[in-house]
Design goal:
It is a single chain. The protein is 39% helix and 17% strand. The protein is α/β, with parallel strands linked by helices. 40% of the residues are buried. Helix 3 links the parallel strand 1 and strand 2.
């Protein structure tokens, strides 16, 4: 107790390691540091994610956290809850905690509303967005190349003889989904007036239920291949197909997106697009660290290349019985 009092009183003769240990203990127990010890470097880094149900979000959180810990920064996980705790609640807390920076995963500061968004910009809080859900020019961003991901999926299905290919995306306005849709329309090489592709595209919530509902509609349109914007959507689509007696991949091929944990051991093992999670996390940490250390970034988006992982949910086109 005497040592703690001496550290908090900023008395001379305290070893740096002892001072650091006491201040870290305050952070761990959620206690405010004395004002003299509050600096951006000593503050928290908020990791704001929409939810933890989608396996890709915990994977990205882990990748970012590992990099931040190596820099001596602590992380605070902030995720929306069913009882109404929102991004705005978390950002208000982070701003009061002398936050060193914020990493938004799968969302953006816009989700917190214009008031907090303005405060974050006015205070020049270091921010990095990973796979942002909306456009955020002027902010450091790290994203997987969604257009390349869609192209890889479509070319794979085309090589297997599939011509009538459906697309299951997230909600309209979701930027990664919009980018995949753009690549899909270009792949079809349709005229500007041809809107027939709209019957083969479904916008649904990111869930197995959403994927299942979309698959039911696409099967009625005669698709033999389906590209999904997440692994959860793909699993829901496969379940809906099998419930209707449609074989995967015998009658319809399905491709997911993310390469979440355990996708190699489901039945059938899921062909999917792998996000470079570790590289994305490392890039986000590097961009955040640069801002914390006073560097001004151009605000351009860093796109990382995805990888097609071929497994058992895709195969040659066969007409459905």
């Amino acid at each position: 107790m005497a040592t703690v009092r001496r550290v908090l009183g900023d008395k001379p003769g305290i070893a740096p390691s002892t001072k650091a240990a006491v201040l870290t203990a305050l952070d761990v127990f959620g206690l405010d540091r004395p004002a003299r010890f509050r600096t951006a470097q000593d503050g928290l880094v908020g990791l704001v994610v929409p939810d933890l149900q989608n396996p890709i979000f915990p994977a990205l959180v882990e990748a970012v956290s590992i990099g931040l810990v190596k820099l001596g920064l602590m992380t605070a996980l902030c995720t929306r809850t069913a009882d109404g705790v929102s991004e705005a609640n978390y950002i208000a807390l982070l701003l009061r905690r002398e936050v060193a920076g914020i990493v938004f995963i799968g969302g953006s500061y816009a989700d917190a509303g214009p008031e907090y968004g303005k405060e974050l910009r006015d205070r020049e809080i270091p921010m990095v967005l990973i796979n942002a859900a909306d456009e955020n020019p002027g902010v450091a961003r790290v994203s997987v190349d969604d257009e390349a991901a869609a192209e890889q999926s479509l070319l794979h299905l085309a090589s297997l003889g599939h011509e009538r290919i459906g697309l299951i995306l997230g909600p309209e306005g979701h930027v990664p989904s919009a980018r995949k849709l753009g690549a899909y329309v270009r792949h079809l090489r349709t005229s500007p007036d041809d809107q027939s592709w709209r019957d083969l595209v479904a916008h649904v919530p990111f869930s197995m239920e959403g994927g299942g509902a979309a698959m039911t509609r696409l099967l009625a349109q005669g698709v033999t291949g389906v590209v999904c914007a997440s692994d959860a959507l793909a699993l829901g689509a496969i379940r809906a197909a099998r419930r209707r007696g449609v074989s995967v991949p015998g009658n319809v091929s399905v491709i997911g997106f993310d390469d979440s944990a355990y996708m190699s051991v489901v039945e059938a093992p899921l062909t999917t697009i792998r996000q470079p999670v570790r590289a994305m996390g490392a890039a986000a940490v590097k961009l955040l660290d640069a801002q914390i250390n006073g560097q001004v970034l151009p605000g351009e988006e860093l796109l990382l290349e995805p990888e097609l992982i071929v497994r058992g949910s895709t195969g040659p086109r066969h007409p459905r019985a």
